[in-house]
Amino acid sequence: MPRKKETITLSIPPGTKEQLEAIARRLNITWGKDPSISGLIVAIAQQSLEVGKPFTLDSNQVNALQQAIKALSDAGHIGEAQTVITILLERGNLDAPMRQSLLKQASRLVQAWRSQIDEYRQNQQPFHLLYENSQGQELLYTVRYAEPRFFDRRFYLMIWCEETEDVKNLIPDLPELWHNRCLSFDRIRSIVPASGEWREELGYLKVYLHFRGWMVKSYQRREDDLEDEMIGDVRQVVRRVVNDFWLIREVARYWEDCVIVSPESLRERLKQKLFTLCNLYNVETKT
User: Which domain of life does the UniProt lineage start with (predicted)?
Assistant: First the structure.
């Protein structure tokens, strides 16, 4: 026995009927081959169809959510990162390359490297790690210590590895840091257990920094700071440094208000970068 249907009479302005039919046709709500206004009204009443202003994201919102995906994945919150990716794919007004990039990223997140590494760290289990760097090169590391570190608003994986050949020529005067690597979680390709002993910490340099001017009061103490004291009008900070790149980047940000006092090897490294910069900008220097 067919269900009884109710009928209603609508008073609508001229042209509205055609507009409703166009919406029904776009949403594939039809009666036979024709668009169905009745079906459209039923879908709205049953809340199976969204009405009102479309929920879309502008470019600034898309960029903000991309940063959120990186932060969540680096922190090990894989499910939440995938949820944000889904929102971007559904609402982000993305071009084809961006959609493909997000789909690949979602596939990588499934592997949940952060959770696996946390388990190895807890069990003090060494592991082999296959990594693809920014130049597309695949590097294999035997990891005997690892910990997440926060640099420049995101998490990285700091490791102590047996391999040194890929950095000896880059930092020949900093042998204390030859075994350390700073890796992006999204460039890890595989992890498998390894035999041998687990180390207690990363390699490090003991670096003396002098903060001057406005940085005397504005500098905020870091977890790796071993000493922090005033010497005259200079604030001296002694820090355990595990990566020279991030330290030099920090010092360069403060210009003349932050000076590396020692070790000399690190001072010399910064000097060479300054000489190179001067040459690029045609600044004459006295040697």
Answer: Bacteria
Cite the beta strand spans of 234-281 per DSSP E.
234-241, 258-262
Please state whether the peptide bond connecting residue 14 to the residue before it is cis, i.e. omega within 30 degrees of 0.
no
User: Which ranges constitute the DSSP H helices of 124-263?
Assistant: 165-168, 215-218, 244-254
Radius of gyration of the chain (CA): 29
* Backbone CA torsion sign across 132, 135, 136, 138: negative
Question: In this structure, is the dihedral angle defined by the CA atoms of residues 264, 252, 179 and 209, taken in order, positive or negative?
Answer: positive
Q: For 47-70, what is the mean pLDDT?
A: 76
DSSP state of 4: P
Instruction: Give the tens place of pLDDT for each residue, 191-205.
Output: 899 999 999 999 999
β-pairing, 234-241 with 225-231?
antiparallel
Q: Nearest CA to 82 among 107, 57, 115?
A: 107
Look at the pTM and tell me if it is higher than 0.70.
no
Q: Where does the pLDDT of residue 52 fall: very low under 50, low under 70, confident under 90, or very high at 90 and above?
A: low
The torsion defined by the Cα of 106, 110, 116 and 118, in degrees rounded to 10, comes to 50
Put the strands of the sheet holding 205-211 in their side by side order: 225-231, 234-241, 205-211, 258-262
Under 8 Å between Cβ of 250 and 222 = no
User: Which pLDDT band holds residue 38 (cuts at 50, 70, 90)?
Assistant: confident
